[in-house]
Design a protein that fits this description.
By secondary structure, this protein is an alpha+beta fold. It is built from 2 helices and 6 strands; from the N terminus they run βαββββαβ. The chain has a 4-stranded antiparallel β-sheet with strand order 2-5-1-6, with helices on one face. Strands 3-4 form a two-stranded antiparallel sheet. The protein starts with a strand and ends in a 5-residue tail after the last strand.
């Protein structure tokens, strides 16, 4: 089955313990609903740098990644359907969905 990389872009953790607990519960519920699809639940991403041939830029560009996950899905439409319910989208964030191809060496 193909694997898809979810790259999360958007707001970080909210301020306040109650808001943080609610956000973590929403992520747990969403991931639990799709537990069979998650190959790697991933992790949040901290500070970023963008590397090009001639320079290194702090901050990850105009839309830095804030986290990632890896899921199994039959096709990109199925992966997108899973991503659509991601809690990051409620706060104005986005989920970039891309197929992760296996490469033989």
């Amino acid at each position: 089955m193909p694997k898809y990389l979810f790259t999360y872009h958007g707001p970080g953790m909210p301020d306040g313990a109650d808001e943080q607990a609610a956000e973590m519960a929403a992520w747990g519920e969403w991931m639990g609903t799709h537990a069979a699809a998650f190959v790697d639940v991933g992790a949040p991403v901290g500070g970023t740098k963008t590397v090009s041939a001639d320079r290194i830029t702090d901050g990850g560009g105009s839309n830095p990644a804030t986290g990632y996950s890896l899921v199994d899905a039959v096709d990109i439409d199925a992966a997108t359907a899973i991503a659509k319910g991601c809690p990051v989208t409620r706060g104005g964030g986005t989920v970039e969905v891309g197929e992760a191809f296996e490469v033989s060496t």
